[in-house]
């Protein structure tokens, strides 16, 4: 899988001037407190091809913490990338090596998170102000691992000029051997806005990311920020190499069921949602047997049937009953029984 992922980046770079979705990548964004291993297992039941990302894990935690808890994932999640936070090249290189040894097919460096906690560690979005240091971090990781090393950034922070700031970052990371640059097409404001506000308040500037791709036609440039549908993702893929969807994929995961056919041209019927639920019930049963709770899994499934008749009752059951001590997969099955597919079938 690592070879396939690396090949996808190489092919996409070589074909970057072909304005078509062939050889492009669709991914689900790394999201703190959301894209844990249970979330990724659900998403993989809906799409075999999309690239999935972990939540950001701090390099120090990888080196000194409980690696099994932080890094373990189900092989079914592949292709999956590990996102690291940090600003010390040697530590990032060691954490990247550990992640690659765990089987991750890509190591991504976070240069976009604006939270106070991340800023206090002098990494995340504040690294936009130190592009040369980011380049050093990438070079150190590239020297340590064989899998792709990528970066996820903003277009700038605070009062930076996005034209200059993003170009400087791209030049530094590509000179260091970076395999892909994913750009959240907003500035980050390090003071005065919460992380949540930083996902909505600064205006989106997709054109800035398109211009970056025009300047680096043979490098992989992916876009992130405000993408709410596959139609929007496909439109972006006529300009850049990758489209990364965040909250929409989490809040309405069923839309991922069309990724393989619409983005990757795969033949065959989309995943059967009844089979997805049964797979997740069996997965939840295994998780509970290992000491976990049903809600660890079902919290990511709340929005799975948004728009279906019965979805409200489905959500109520999962929200109220899955959190109770001793709750088992029968709760998920009972919630699913409230979904009425007949309206969708008649419309089809």
TrEMBL record:
<comment type="similarity">
    <text>Belongs to the dus family.</text>
</comment>
<feature type="active site" description="Proton donor">
    <location>
        <position position="113"/>
    </location>
</feature>
<dbReference type="InterPro" id="IPR001269">
    <property type="entry name" value="DUS_fam"/>
</dbReference>
<feature type="site" description="Interacts with tRNA; defines subfamily-specific binding signature">
    <location>
        <position position="315"/>
    </location>
</feature>
<feature type="site" description="Interacts with tRNA">
    <location>
        <position position="110"/>
    </location>
</feature>
<feature type="binding site">
    <location>
        <position position="83"/>
    </location>
    <ligand>
        <name>FMN</name>
    </ligand>
</feature>
<keyword id="KW-0560">Oxidoreductase</keyword>
<feature type="binding site">
    <location>
        <begin position="224"/>
        <end position="226"/>
    </location>
    <ligand>
        <name>FMN</name>
    </ligand>
</feature>
<keyword id="KW-0288">FMN</keyword>
<comment type="similarity">
    <text>Belongs to the Dus family. DusA subfamily.</text>
</comment>
<dbReference type="Pfam" id="PF01207">
    <property type="entry name" value="Dus"/>
</dbReference>
<keyword id="KW-0820">tRNA-binding</keyword>
<keyword id="KW-0547">Nucleotide-binding</keyword>
<keyword id="KW-0819">tRNA processing</keyword>
<keyword id="KW-0285">Flavoprotein</keyword>
<dbReference type="InterPro" id="IPR013785">
    <property type="entry name" value="Aldolase_TIM"/>
</dbReference>
<dbReference type="InterPro" id="IPR035587">
    <property type="entry name" value="DUS-like_FMN-bd"/>
</dbReference>
<feature type="binding site">
    <location>
        <begin position="30"/>
        <end position="32"/>
    </location>
    <ligand>
        <name>FMN</name>
    </ligand>
</feature>
<dbReference type="GO" id="GO:0102264">
    <property type="term" value="F:tRNA-dihydrouridine20 synthase activity"/>
</dbReference>
<dbReference type="GO" id="GO:0000049">
    <property type="term" value="F:tRNA binding"/>
</dbReference>
<dbReference type="GO" id="GO:0010181">
    <property type="term" value="F:FMN binding"/>
</dbReference>
<feature type="site" description="Interacts with tRNA">
    <location>
        <position position="199"/>
    </location>
</feature>
<dbReference type="GO" id="GO:0050660">
    <property type="term" value="F:flavin adenine dinucleotide binding"/>
</dbReference>
<protein>
    <recommendedName>
        <fullName>tRNA-dihydrouridine(20/20a) synthase</fullName>
        <ecNumber>1.3.1.91</ecNumber>
    </recommendedName>
</protein>
<keyword id="KW-0521">NADP</keyword>
<feature type="binding site">
    <location>
        <position position="184"/>
    </location>
    <ligand>
        <name>FMN</name>
    </ligand>
</feature>
<feature type="binding site">
    <location>
        <position position="152"/>
    </location>
    <ligand>
        <name>FMN</name>
    </ligand>
</feature>
<dbReference type="InterPro" id="IPR018517">
    <property type="entry name" value="tRNA_hU_synthase_CS"/>
</dbReference>
<comment type="function">
    <text>Catalyzes the synthesis of 5,6-dihydrouridine (D), a modified base found in the D-loop of most tRNAs, via the reduction of the C5-C6 double bond in target uridines. Specifically modifies U20 and U20a in tRNAs.</text>
</comment>
<feature type="domain" description="DUS-like FMN-binding">
    <location>
        <begin position="28"/>
        <end position="327"/>
    </location>
</feature>
<dbReference type="InterPro" id="IPR004653">
    <property type="entry name" value="DusA"/>
</dbReference>
<keyword id="KW-0694">RNA-binding</keyword>
<feature type="site" description="Interacts with tRNA; defines subfamily-specific binding signature">
    <location>
        <position position="312"/>
    </location>
</feature>
<feature type="binding site">
    <location>
        <begin position="246"/>
        <end position="247"/>
    </location>
    <ligand>
        <name>FMN</name>
    </ligand>
</feature>
